[in-house]
Design goal:
Layout: H1 3-18, E1 22-27, H2 35-48, E2 55-60, E3 72-75, E4 79-81, H3 89-94, E5 105-106, H4 111-114, H5 132-137, H6 142-150, H7 153-163, H8 175-184, E6 191-196, H9 205-212, H10 214-228, E7 232-238, H11 242-257, E8 273-279, H12 288-295, E9 319-323, H13 324-336, H14 338-342, E10 352-357, E11 365-370, H15 375-382, E12 394-396, E13 404-406, H16 416-437
Parallel strand pairs: 1-2, 6-7, 6-9, 7-8
Antiparallel strand pairs: 1-3, 3-4, 4-5, 10-11, 12-13
Length: about 450
């Protein structure tokens, strides 16, 4: 698809959406139960009143505040409703153009919404994840066309380097440096992999991104493939994520149909195919070398490094491997320039980070905040604190492979460098206590 055709199609879809006076956006993530029933009930009431040409009902991705779901957003007024049931459909339709329905009203100026900065999640809860036209109308795939038609691979890598983006899988390795290494590696065939094997208990960041904006991940992968010279890609996703798998399969088919995947992508020299590989739930396959073994059909066992996957990865060929959130950061960098991401965060940890708030916290859900925000702000301002008036004892920031942060360190800014330094100090403290006991 060429730029002109993409713009025409996006404009046509925007015009069709603008033909409605109101839109009901219903969260269709796993955290909002009965959403299909809510959609059906709203459409039934609208049909009974003969308002099909005035009011649309669309399913969208996760809106974040899972604790108060199911959530429905009414546009253009930007009115949020919480804990909606199918039985509320009559009242919701009747309230359009009037004062908000107070018994379900969810103020949009809550700290949970106001303290966030949406980048990766900018379209989550705003578009239908199963509609490529919704994604195109929101500016989707323009970054791919820009990269493939206006930039050299080295220009793409330089822009990612200038943004300061670091891998969001946890290690925080500079993304641009990893891309440059794969680009320089020699070999007739190169691969790229999206690590969607999210195994930490309580973590659902990658799952929600894949369920809400699968095309954003594909777009980031296409740009990465062009930058490093890869021609085949794999998304390694947990089989326990059936909704993400379903929407990824649909997104890949739509991308192929519109020539964002396949031969001569968008009329360029890039040939690229992307396939899914389902993981069987082995936690160790989240480690990149074990994941590569699993993609090859072998038992997922980590291997010593070097050689690194960038030089000898999948089937011994140079391989780029990043996680879901890292790829989803790429399209805005290309479309809006590296300065926007680089302006956020800390000196060494640029941009934003998506977190899953789970456990003993009031506002469980999905958030995105600038790097450098303190754990205290995340837990108490955005998360609403601990229910029942109980005291906070600790925050686990990364599942069994991450660190457990004691309550006295709540003012620690969330960044790769600060959490790593805190982790080392805690290891020393715990080690000293253990030695003294023995």
């Amino acid at each position: 698809m060429q730029r002109e055709e993409l713009i025409r199609r996006a404009d046509a879809h925007r015009r069709s959406l603008n033909g409605f006076t109101h839109h009901f956006l219903v969260c269709a993530g796993l955290g909002c139960p009965r959403n299909e029933e809510i959609i059906a009930a709203l459409r039934s009431v609208i049909a009974e009143r003969g308002l099909q040409e005035q009011i649309s009902v669309r399913k969208v991705g996760c809106m974040g505040l899972c604790a108060l779901g199911p959530i429905v957003l009414v546009q253009p007024e930007e009115i949020f409703y919480q804990a909606v049931t199918p039985e509320d459909a009559e009242d919701l339709v009747a309230s359009l153009g009037k004062a908000p329905l107070q018994r379900l009203f969810l103020p949009s100026d809550l700290p949970f919404f106001k303290r966030q900065h949406k980048n990766v999640l900018a379209l989550s809860g705003r578009i239908d994840p199963e509609s490529v036209d919704d994604y195109l109308a929101a500016g989707g795939y323009l970054a791919v066309v820009q990269a493939l038609t206006e930039m050299r691979p080295s220009d793409v890598i330089r822009r990612v380097q200038e943004s300061g983006l670091r891998g969001r899988g946890g290690a925080g390795y500079p993304t641009g440096l990893k891309w440059a290494t794969v680009a320089k590696a020699t070999g007739e065939k190169k691969y790229l992999i999206c690590n969607a094997d999210e195994g930490d208990p309580g973590a659902f960041m990658d799952r929600s991104i894949l369920e809400s904006t699968p095309h954003a991940v594909l777009e980031g992968m296409i740009i990465a493939a062009y930058a490093v010279g890869a021609t085949s890609g794999y998304i390694y996703v947990r089989a326990e994520y059936p909704l993400a798998v379903k929407r990824l399969k649909l997104a890949i088919r739509e991308a192929e149909r519109l020539n964002f995947l396949g031969h001569a992508v968008c009329g360029s020299s890039l040939d690229l195919d992307i396939q899914l590989r389902l993981g069987a739930g082995a936690f160790v396959c989240g480690e990149e070398t074990a994941l590569i073994q699993s993609v090859e059909g072998k038992r997922g066992i980590p291997r010593p490094r070097p050689p690194y996957p960038a030089e000898q990865g999948l089937w011994g060929r140079p391989t780029l491997i990043n996680n879901v959130e890292t790829y989803a950061n790429v399209p805005p960098i290309i479309a809006h320039g590296p300065e926007k991401l680089a302006a956020l965060g800390t000196e060494q940890s640029k941009g934003t980070k998506v977190f899953a708030l789970t456990g003993k916290i009031r506002n469980s859900g999905l958030i995105e905040v600038p790097m450098g925000m303190s754990l205290r702000e995340i837990v108490f301002d955005i998360g609403g604190g601990i229910p029942g008036g109980h005291a906070l004892k600790a925050v686990q920031t990364g599942g069994p492979s991450g660190g457990c942060i004691p309550a006295e360190h709540l003012d620690t800014p969330v960044s790769f460098e600060s959490l790593r330094a805190l982790g080392r100090s805690e290891e020393r403290r715990v080690g000293k206590e253990c030695r003294s006991r023995w």
